[in-house]
Amino acid sequence: MMANDSNTQSLHRRILIVEDEPNMREMLSRATREMDFTPQAVSTAEAALTAMANEAVDLILLDMNLPGLSGIEFFEQVNARWPQVPVIILTGYGDLDTAKRAIRLNVVDFLTKPCSLADLEAALDRALRRRLDTHRATLSNCPVPFESEADDEPDAQTPHTLQDHERELILQTLARHDGNREATAAELGISLRKLYYRIAEYEKQGYLSR
């Protein structure tokens, strides 16, 4: 079970689960409740928007393949209306366009279904700490500090996940600009700080030479 330090306990730990598969929705609700979150689960993006308008949430666990409004379209609306709420993407497939859009929306993590409870817990912990950093920055009216995330291990068994597409997109863009990080960040539409963090991850994982 996720450790509850005094920092993360300062949030209400409300999580919105947006998942159209009933069995997966129930499993995620049960798992997050056992991790000391208060889950609210809905089956569509439209229902999720209504839920968020009625009650604040701390985190979102979002399936990409939804009926009606898509997961990435919902993510874009969340980013515009509730930019302080971190989002974890849960998906059974991956594509380059979705990865590129998710990078620009500052997704916390990509989880490929079925994901292990350990991976889910680690992603939730990162998201919760990002939410806490944003909350502190809002209260103190200062910039959000750089978050320290756990290293993500490469998964050779799933070469086409959104996380893989994100890495390939960043590395290809970096190569196209001959290693110029400012130009790479500008083309991808992400902050230079985030690009430096991702490059450090890829170096640790062996995808990029130091």
Brief sketch in words of this structure:
This protein has helices at residues 22-34, 45-54, 71-81, 96-104, 117-140, 162-176, 181-188, 192-205, and strands spanning 14-18, 38-42, 59-63, 87-91, 109-112.
Question: Which structural category do the helix and sheet elements fall into?
Answer: alpha/beta
Indicate the CATH topology of the largest domain: Rossmann fold
Termini Cα gap: 36 Å
Q: Helix and strand string, N-terminal first?
A: EHEHEHEHEHHHH
CATH class of the largest domain: Alpha Beta
Q: Regarding quaternary structure, how should these chains be classified?
A: single chain
In the sheet with the most strands, the strands line up as 2-1-3-4-5
**SS elements, strand count:** 5
Q: Largest sheet, if any?
A: 5 strands, parallel
Number of domains: 2
CATH homology-level superfamily of the largest domain: Response regulator
Give helix % range: 40-55%
The averaged pLDDT comes out at 79
Large-scale geometry: globular
Q: How many individual helices?
A: 8
Percentage of residues in strands: 5-15%
CATH architecture of the largest domain, by name, is 3-Layer(aba) Sandwich
Quickly list its features.
alpha/beta; 210 residues; 2 domains; Arc Repressor Mutant, subunit A; disordered N terminus
